[in-house]
Every structure is written in structure tokens, then in C-alpha cells.
Amino acid sequence: ELKSAYPKGKPVLHNNLPAVIMHEVRNSLTVTRGFIQLLQPQFVKVGKDEYARVILMELDKACEMLQDFMAYSKPRSPERTIVDVSELFKELQLLAKSQALAKGCRIEFMEEVEDSMEISIDLKQIKQVLLNMIKNATEAIDELHQERSGLIRISAERNGHFVKLIICDNGSGISAGALARLFEPYFTTKERGTGLGLAVSRQIINDHGGTIKVSSTKGKGTIFDISLPLVIN
Ligand code: ADP
Ligand code: MG
Predict the structure, then answer these.
(1) How much is the pLDDT for 87?
(2) Assessment of whether the complete model's pTM goes beyond 0.90
(3) CA dist 113 to 21, 88, 165, 233, Å?
């Protein structure tokens, strides 16, 4: 079942938050409120830990949806600095690992990155793109509630004047129908997705003069590759 509440490419007005996101955020806040109410002394019998877990999960979800939407409605042009790919990976590792671990899957960064691969990037934006990818990968692994263990691999290789960043997972994979619409704003296959992560990611990569591609096999896994121009010395 696919949810796409808005037509492709429709501009979004700042004073007109899409109803679907408003609705989801309100849901999260309503659930959170209910659980906080249950934490009041007269109600607490058992399950305090469970209440706390749900409260945090719902608040995270609401923040996440607002963040996706804000990134989509307020694109900004990159503020570039020159960064080595190995540096980018180092910056990313801690957060990526905790994100993957929380979902019970392993994440492996390539051991040795060629040390001379420099790119001129908005570090914050490119980190955001890679975290979007990793989040999608963990969710795809989650969806498979699988017998084989979930694994995400992240690597980088030189390709002419570009560096290719590769994010590979052994999650649910993507059907051919979904593959064609993946980067459309508001396209999601998740019950509580915004469908904005990939749309924002592609915009950021385009702004950097790069490209983003995907290949996937349903039931096997998915590979995203992001090409960014190298700094030529
Ligand atoms: P959201 O995560 O909110 O659904 P995204 O733009 O991040 O929005 O992703 C859009 C859709 O692309 C997802 O709903 C999912 O169907 C698909 N997708 C993205 N990455 C993966 C992946 N690694 N494995 C399987 N499906 C994916
Ligand atoms: Mg996403």
C-alpha cells in the first residue's frame, strides 16, 4: 500500500504544512500525552519503563517528521568546505553506529579509504544525506524481521573525477513499481513515513554537482550510490 498525498513537484507554502504531516505529528503528541498521563502516581501500577519507552519513541517520531518537512520546505545552498572522504566517514561513524545498533543491525565502514580523496561539501548536509540512507536501510532491515542478520556496508571508491559513496543493505529491497517513484516528494511505503528523506537527499546531492542512484532486488537488499565531484589539485 502506497501513500502519496501530494502530486509530484507541487510547491509547498510555509504557512500550509501538509495535512499528512500535521496529522502524524498530532498523533504522536496525543499518544505521548496519554502515556504521560498514565505516569501520574494514581495510575502507575506496572509498566513505567514501557510508558517511558513509548513516550520517547513518539517524541522522536514527531521531531523526525518535522525535521524532514523543514529540510524540504526550506532548501538552502551548500556552505562548502574541503573535506577528505575519510574525515567524512569518521564524522559519521559514531552517530551511524548508534542509529544502527538501536535497530539491532550491524554497520560496517570501509576500513581504508584512499587518503587523497577530497571533496568540497557542506559537511552538515552530506552527513544528513548519509544518515537518511542509513535510517532507510535500518528500517528496510527491520521490515524483513529476518532470520539472517541485518548488515549495512558503507564504502567509497574513486571513479575518474568523482568519488562514489556506496551504501549497501540486506534489507527488504524495493519493488520495481516503487523504484520508479522513490525520489518523489511524499512517496513512502511506510505507515508513518514522510516520503521526504530521498527527495531532500537528491536535492542536496544535485546542489553539490553530484548524482544519486539506486539498484535493488526485492527480498535481497538495496544499494545506493552517490557520486560527488573530487577537488582537483
Ligand atoms: P520515508 O523513509 O519517510 O518513507 P524516504 O524518501 O526516505 O521516505 O524513502 C522513500 C521510500 O523509499 C521508502 O518509503 C521505502 O519504500 C524506499 N526505500 C528507501 N531506502 C530504502 C532501502 N534501503 N531499502 C528498501 N526501501 C527503501
Ligand atoms: Mg526515510
Answers:
(1) 92
(2) no
(3) 39, 11, 11, 18
